[in-house]
Amino acid sequence: MYFERFFDKGLAQASYLIGCQQTGEALVVDPLRDVDRYLDAAQREGLRITHVTETHIHADFLSGARQLAAGSGAQLLISDEGGEDWLPRYDHTPLHDGDRIQLGRVSIETLHTPGHTPEHVSFVVTDTAAGNEPVMVLTGDFLFVGDVGRPDLLENAAGVAGSAETSARRLFSSTRRIRRLPEFVQVWPGHGAGSACGKALGALPSTTVGYELRFNWALREESEERFVRSVLSGQPEVPDYFGRMKLTNRDGVPAFDVEARAVKLDALSKSVGSEAQIVDTRSVESFSRGHSAGALNIPDDGSFVTWAGWLLDPNRPVVLVARRERVEELRLALGRVGVDEVRGYVEDPGDLASVSGPMETIPLVSAMEYARSRDDHPGTLIDVRSTDEYAAGHIPGARHIHLGDLRDAARNFGPDQALTVYCESGGRSGIAASLLRGLGMNNVTNLSGGFAAYRCLDGAEVERSEERVPG
Ligand SMILES: [Fe+2]
């Protein structure tokens, strides 16, 4: 049996290639849209991709399953267990609980494990060349290392009112099902630490049923009521692009142009166009010193894809400010969240001056300077962190507006209102400050170092709030 895991750091997402070396047949589970990586790997290993499947209708990225099946001639197997509303609206071979996928000597059983989503399935893999007991289970977003997938996305991302509790109860039943597998069975989940599909995901790439039975709170919990309460509390904010991803994934994701390359725009380029969104991927510090008017600063780091999905308009083209060697990776990351049109890139934001006018700056203020001068500059202080972070401790008087909600909230600000934004360490507030500037606020300051720096000041006052969600 051949087995390979592909891990995308930006999404903290894992996809898998499983094959039978004797017959050369192979299956890909949960592919991303840049499908050439699976085709290349299969070719390298002398395998043919004969089957493509996914564990569930994803909310955090656009699936590459349809495109990969079309490109490889593979059978596309998708769960039909989700009920009328969550049946795939494109051609596929339906998968049901108990169905087997045979790849030569490798036998894969479908296990319906609803809860994170209604149609969710896991895949129990047996390598019959080695033995008759399963060797591993691919659990998608049902079971992670140390946690289970959140059951509230259907309600909070897809707007199915009242579904969070029903889904949590289904998830509890699914945990009872997985407990019946032998302890030695390896568990390969669909996400690692950093994903918003759960709240306490472990960093290890895999685990075993036995280890999870001992250490995963969700498998250990015997009371359904306690399970439901625990799993629904303390979940991170739901990125609002999750709803859009789910519907596109259900209805059929358009093909992504894997071969396309972003072009470098020259200084006098007119191709930027007024409808383009300028996404400046440099550090907060570089951006603050000088950037094109209207540019959104989303630094090229581990959170790029999440904030791009959350804050960009998928129907408008993007112009990147980025280093040449990073452009292709960034284009793929944007494609993962459905922002498909990258019109081009510049390495130096000055190259955009002919279309976007003179460069702008955003003042950075240290925690110490801010604490010293606050009385002289009352203004509005905005904490853009999560609800939990804000509740656990914030600068007195700060208003909580999560970064994902800032665009809507900004409608209530005047263009000359003094606004100071902060987060934990200055990263998210950099994005926030650029967003506010781009929306026409002229008096925005970013508290560099964020709450972490503020908290370390001698005599720093910290306010806690009741709105904390118990974790
Ligand atoms: Fe998911």
What this model shows, in words?
This protein folds into three domains: 2-251, Metallo-beta-lactamase, Chain A (4-Layer Sandwich), CATH 3.60.15.10; 270-349, Oxidized Rhodanese, domain 1 (3-Layer(aba) Sandwich); 364-470, Oxidized Rhodanese, domain 1 (3-Layer(aba) Sandwich), CATH 3.40.250. The protein has helices at 36-44, 65-72, 153-156, 163-178, 209-215, 217-220, 224-232, 241-251, 284-289, 304-311, 324-336, 353-356, 367-373, 387-392, 406-409, 427-438, 450-455, and strands at 2-8, 13-19, 25-29, 48-53, 75-79, 93-95, 100-103, 106-112, 121-127, 136-140, 143-144, 147-148, 186-189, 207-208, 277-280, 296-297, 318-321, 342-346, 364-366, 380-383, 399-400, 419-422, 444-448. Residues 467-471 have low confidence and may be disordered. The radius of gyration is 24 Å and the shape is globular. Helices cover 28% and strands 21% of the residues. It binds fe (ii) ion. Residues 56, 58-60, 116, 141, 149, 197 line the site of fe (ii) ion.
Task: Tell me the layout of helices and strands.
Layout: E1 2-8, E2 13-19, E3 25-29, H1 36-44, E4 48-53, H2 65-72, E5 75-79, E6 93-95, E7 100-103, E8 106-112, E9 121-127, E10 136-140, E11 143-144, E12 147-148, H3 153-156, H4 163-178, E13 186-189, E14 207-208, H5 209-215, H6 217-220, H7 224-232, H8 241-251, E15 277-280, H9 284-289, E16 296-297, H10 304-311, E17 318-321, H11 324-336, E18 342-346, H12 353-356, E19 364-366, H13 367-373, E20 380-383, H14 387-392, E21 399-400, H15 406-409, E22 419-422, H16 427-438, E23 444-448, H17 450-455
Parallel strand pairs: 3-4, 4-5, 5-6, 10-13, 15-16, 15-17, 17-18, 19-23, 20-21, 20-22, 22-23
Antiparallel strand pairs: 1-2, 2-3, 7-8, 8-9, 9-10, 11-12, 13-14
Fe (ii) ion is lined by residues 56, 58-60, 116, 141, 149, 197.
